[in-house]
Design goal:
This protein has 4 helices and 11 strands. It is of the alpha+beta class and about 180 residues long. It has one domain: Jelly Rolls. Strands 2-8-5-10-3 form a 5-stranded antiparallel β-sheet, with helices on one face. Strands 1-7-6-9 form a 4-stranded antiparallel β-sheet. A two-stranded antiparallel ribbon has the order 4-11. A hairpin with a 5-residue loop joins strand 6 and strand 7. Its EC number is 1.13.11.54, 1.13.11.53.
Length: about 180
């Protein structure tokens, strides 16, 4: 089961857990209600044949997938790219990641602009809604292999904060106010 918690304000290494003292965990229900983030746990051994991923893809209209590996030896320009992933940004489309190997953290802003850290591991499928402020980093293991899913051709254009005037952000705020 995925874990999520409110982050401390430390500027220490981004790959650390950054728990508050004492830790303040966030349930999946609260995460969904407050941020619109969706989560599934899939079997990494049988996802290609058990139909669960295909159902999610069909239900949500995902038609394109690729796989990314993020580690010092797998990703060109690693240091520059991992820093770019950790810059707070939004997208105009959902961001969908299915973890095939390794682990990492997605950080999302709640309705009070506080950071919630979501630890993802093998088998976790996470959907971040369009317009949510977020960022990604590896954890101390320094490796993740993830499937990226898209509706149509892949679009991975980050719009760094502030992006409050963008339609995707405005629509996200309206969904947040009215309930996801």
């Amino acid at each position: 089961m995925v874990l999520a918690w409110y982050m401390d304000d430390s500027t220490d290494d981004q790959r650390l857990k950054h728990h508050m003292t004492p830790p303040q965990y966030v349930s999946l229900a609260t995460l969904k209600e407050n941020t619109g983030v969706l989560y599934w746990k899939l079997n990494p051994e049988s996802y290609e044949t058990d139909g669960q991923l295909e159902k999610i893809k069909s239900d949500r209209g995902y038609t394109y997938t690729d796989v990314i590996q993020v580690s010092p030896d797998k990703l060109p320009n690693y240091e520059t790219t991992i820093k770019r992933f950790f810059e707070e940004h939004i997208h105009t489309d959902e961001e969908i990641r299915f973890v095939l190997e390794g682990s990492g953290y997605f950080d999302v802003r709640d309705s009070h602009d506080k950071w919630i850290r979501i630890a993802v591991d093998v088998g976790d499928l996470l959907i971040l809604p369009a317009g949510i402020y977020h960022r990604f980093t590896l954890d101390s293991k320094n490796y993740i292999k993830a499937m990226r899913l898209f509706i149509g051709e892949p679009v991975w254009t980050p719009f760094n904060r502030p992006a409050d005037d963008m339609d995707a952000r405005k629509q996200y705020i309206e969904h947040q106010k009215s309930g996801f």
